[in-house]
Amino acid sequence: PLFYRQMERKATILYTHGDAKERKRLFAREGKDHMPILAIIITSLVSILVAGAIVLLHFFPRAPRQQHAHYDFALVLGCPCLPDGSLSRMQRRRMDHALWLYEQNACSLLIVSGGSVKNEHGEADAMLAYARRQHAIHAEAETRATNTYENFVYARALWEKHHCHSAIIVTSPFHARRANYFAKRYFSDYCISTYAQHDRLRN
Fold first, then answer.
1. CA-to-CA distance for 182 and 195, rounded, in angstroms?
2. How far apart are CA 127 and CA 115, in angstroms?
3. Are 111 and 76 within 8 A, CB to CB?
4. So what's the pLDDT on residue 196?
5. How far apart are CA 100 and CA 136, in angstroms?
6. Closest by CA position to 34, among listed 1, 73, 79
7. Backbone angles phi, psi at 92, to 5 degrees
8. 14-54 pLDDT per residue, tens
9. CB proximity list for 169: less than 8 A, separation 6 or greater
10. Among candidates 74, 66, 69, which has minimal Cα distance to 96?
């Protein structure tokens, strides 16, 4: 940078022709001259970070928690199976949590949404098969969705078929804000429910 080249040139001259006090005075003055620039850079970076946080919180606010004892249904958002078709740990956690809600009578219907995304294995079909091995449930599978937006788009026909109006959206903790971004466009009465990291998996 130009600043350091100028300092180097002046320092060379002073070390050759000047004394120690003059050298110290020069470096102190040059440092003060560049402090406003440094302050502007820091202020700009902080402003960018604050603005980014405001935008993030506006479009992805904190997900609403469960307010009622019972909702019409739970929409379980899918995620990819393992390459061999077995359930991933995340799939099991989401499905276990949905089953727990169902057993607590927090919902009367489970809709599991997810197509084949990272491999040929269908997310919803695999998750629902797992759930039915655990519990006799009233459930439907939506098998076309390839992302969170499509989870809601394609599952809508199913919840409307069952005349559902209130919903629990079941997903992972890190995914809650993204799920909420879409859920609030489809429901006025809903909550986002996630498993806890310390929850034990079912056998």
1. 19
2. 11
3. yes
4. 87
5. 13
6. 1
7. -65, -40
8. 555 555 665 566 556 655 555 577 777 788 787 777 766 56
9. 74, 75, 77, 179, 180, 183, 190, 191, 192, 193
10. 74
